[in-house]
Amino acid sequence: MAAPSGRSGRRLWAALVPAALLCLAARAAEELSTADFDVRPGGEVHSFSRSLGDYTCTFTYSAQGGTNEQWQMNIGVSEDNLLFSCSVWRPQGKSYLFFTQFKAEVKGAKIEYAMAYSQAAAGGQSDIPLKQEEFEISETTVSHREGKFRFELSKLMIVAKTPRDEL
Predict the structure, then answer these.
(1) pLDDT tens string 72-86
(2) In angstroms, rounded to a whole number, what is the distance separating the alpha carbons of residues 132 and 136?
(3) d(CA 98, CA 161)
(4) Which of 2, 81, 101, 154 has minimal Cβ neighbours within 10 Å of its Cβ?
(5) Which residues pair with residue 45 across a beta bridge?
(6) Residue 65 Rama label (left phi>0; alpha psi -120 to 50; beta)
(7) Which residues lie across from 84 on neighbouring strands?
């Protein structure tokens, strides 16, 4: 199959590749772990972490306004142990908190794909991605970009490649 061409084709391709990676990671998952946690406002920095085997995902944030919100972290390792996935999101869709900062960090793997959303799909609504200038991606982190982030966050998704032991 050839990659779509032209401007709209590139956008379609850019949307399909990450979705395919996430589906593959989810379907091939040998191990999955889901944990609920509260995102707490108040302006203090909080962290939530989960590990699965040699891999860890940590979500660090600071938020203002409202009351605690129920969020969820899902982590998984593919059956072939080549991909580690981490998603942090508000299952109800949109968060009403005002995030002053956020960072998701993976340990034991290097990020292959990541995306941040101002609204998570729920109740017939679609995911709404943050603009690329609002966040930055490094080998191991996805974080807000100071001065560009518009304080809305409802979902983070990461697919990371695990180190491969060659024989």
Answers:
(1) 999 999 999 999 999
(2) 8
(3) 31
(4) 2
(5) 62
(6) left
(7) 77, 160
